[in-house]
Amino acid sequence: MDVLEDALRLYGARGSVGVRLEAGGVWGVWVETYPGAALHLVAEGEAWLEVPGRPSLHVGAGGAVLLPAGTPHGLAWRAGARMGACDRETAAAAQADGAVLRRGTGEVDTRLLTVHYEQDSALGAPLFPRPVHVTAGEGPRLAATIALLSAELGEPQVGTTAAINSLVDLVLVQFARAWLRAHPAESAGPWLTGLQDPVVRDALTRLHHRPAHPWTTAGLATEISVSRATLSRRFPAALGEPPAAYLTRLRMELAAVRLRDTDEPVESIATAVGYGSPKAFSRAFQRVRGQAPGEYRSTARAVLVG
């Protein structure tokens, strides 16, 4: 199994909503809070991204930026421009009927797509925990995806949310590929750092392919033909935790989704994620998630219903 493919299955887009924006002349929009991660794609023209504590970032035609959930930010016609607050009611109305939001005082010279998407609430850290920028040259296939997104946003219909989710997942793949190719010495977060190291990438592939297997660090090292010392050094250097801790967290995330979405007995879920007894599984789940499996199941389903 491709580890990025499995990561997208777990951490990919959910509940995506988006809007098209046309701007020209003097314009600027500030977004203090928003649901989920924010993805901005520039179809034509250019924009400047402002994030508190970071330098102004130029985003040209064919480029895109991805911001983790809860990142206050703004988009404007030039660096340091004054920005007005986002009109949420107008944006929601445009999303509903596929209308274009118009901003600025002059003739339209910039066209953007803005998409907000959520990650499964049962899971932990996102694929990209900090802002990531990809230029048109780094992601040459982004233009085609931008065109598909624009068409879908311009004519909402049955299945639009599912279609946008799939297209956002495609953008995330393109982001990962572009970052790995153009920024091999930098980190956009643990996932991309792990994929840059062939030893860690091979280890992740094995863990994701067989999460219920009774892996040990020594056994995993043998499986990927490296020494235990090498794996013990490089895995935490890339991901911030040893293989055993990563595997436990992965198992608990898989279990959390099954507890919430299925009626499988706790005993069956325990076996499916690699635990020989329900008691051992319950102890691990309580330690990692802060709730017993049954309690988590009730709480998670109540949130869905509410």
End-to-end separation in angstroms reads 36 Å
- How many DSSP H or I helices? 12
Spatial arrangement of strands, main beta sheet:
9-1-10-3-6-11
Mean pLDDT: 89
Number of DSSP-assigned strands: 11
Helix coverage percent: 40-55%
Which structural class should the secondary elements be placed in? alpha+beta
Poorly predicted ranges: none
Structural account:
This protein is α+β, with helices and mostly antiparallel strands. The chain has helices at residues 3-11, 88-97, 142-154, 160-182, 190-196, 198-209, 217-223, 228-239, 243-261, 266-272, 278-289, 293-305, and strands spanning 14-24, 28-31, 37-44, 46-50, 57-60, 64-67, 73-76, 84-85, 100-104, 110-118, 132-134. Strands 9-1-10-3-6-11 form a 6-stranded mixed sheet. Strands 5-4-7-2-8 form a 5-stranded mixed sheet, with no helix packed on it. A hairpin with a 6-residue loop joins strand 4 and strand 5.
What does this entry show, briefly?
The chain is of the alpha+beta class and 306 residues long. 47% of the residues lie in helices and 19% in strands.
